[in-house]
Structure formats: C-alpha cells, structure tokens
Amino acid sequence: MDLKFLVVDDSVTMRRIVINSLKNLGYENYVEAADGQEALAKLNADSEINFIITDWNMPNLSGLEFTKQVRGNPDSANIPILMVTTRGIKEDIVEALQAKVSNYVVKPFTPQILKEKIEQILENV
C-alpha cells in the first residue's frame, strides 16, 4: 500500500523530526499542517491522504478534537491515526483511544518506535 501521510504538529521542529523519521523508513509522500484546522482543510482537499500522524496539544483545533472530526466523517473515518504527544498519563491515553486513535506514541520517540507503531497499525487495517 502506498502511504501518503498527513503530519500535524504546531512545532515546525517536531514536524521535521517526524518527516525525517518517515523518510528514513522509506516513506516519501506527505503533507504538513500546523494545527487541526489546517489538517482538516488539507485532508478534505486531498483524497490520497491515507495515514495521519498528529500531535495532541495544538492551537485552534487540538489533535483530540481533530481526531474526533476525522472519525465523524464517513469519508475519513477509517484513515489510521497515530497520535504523537508528550501526554503520557494513563487518563490521556484512554481518552485518545476512546476518540479512536489507531495508536499512540509518547514524545520523545525514536524512528524505530515510529516504525513499529506504523507497522502495528498497518497490520490491523
């Protein structure tokens, strides 16, 4: 399956880290967004996006709210969502899973962890 990633984070540095990790894993196809609102616009404009990596804490529209909107839209409801966040407490993870994120990575992470999480998600698609 040819993956096109939507990488959503308000930190340019964190988007670079995620994208560099994706490139190291052989994924070259991606678009970026700085918050959930921009991500929704890009997702609605690009039907080729088939994997989302999003931060939680962002201005305008958080990663959690973004996830809920993606899941609430029949056109995007089945797109895998990997949440990458500093929020590592159990309650937050439970809340993210209830919003139906496909998997969860706590920052800081290594490219190997990102690879494992992406592979776990793809096995379950």
Summarize the structure.
With 125 residues, the chain is α/β, with parallel strands linked by helices. The chain has five helices and five strands; from the N terminus they run E-H-E-H-E-H-E-H-E-H.
Describe, in plain words, how this protein is organized in 3D.
This protein is of the alpha/beta class. It has one domain: Response regulator (Rossmann fold). The protein contains 5 helices and 5 strands. The protein has a 5-stranded parallel beta sheet, with helices on both faces. α2 packs parallel to α3. The longest helix has 13 residues. The protein is globular. The model has no long low-confidence stretch (mean pLDDT 94).
Keywords, please?
125 residues; alpha/beta; Rossmann fold; 5-stranded parallel sheet; 5 helices; 17% strand; globular
Produce the secondary structure layout.
Blueprint lengths: L4 E4 L3 H13 L5 E4 L2 H10 L5 E4 L8 H10 L8 E5 L4 H9 L4 E4 L4 H13 L2
Parallel strand pairs: 1-2, 1-3, 3-4, 4-5
Helix pairs in contact: 2-3
The name CATH uses for the topology is: Rossmann fold
Strand content: 15-25%
Which quaternary structure do these chains form?
single chain
How far is the first residue's CA from the last residue's CA?
11 Å
Count of individual domains: 1
Relative helix content: 40-55%
Largest sheet: 5 strands, parallel
Shape: globular
CATH C-level class is: Alpha Beta
| SSE class | alpha/beta
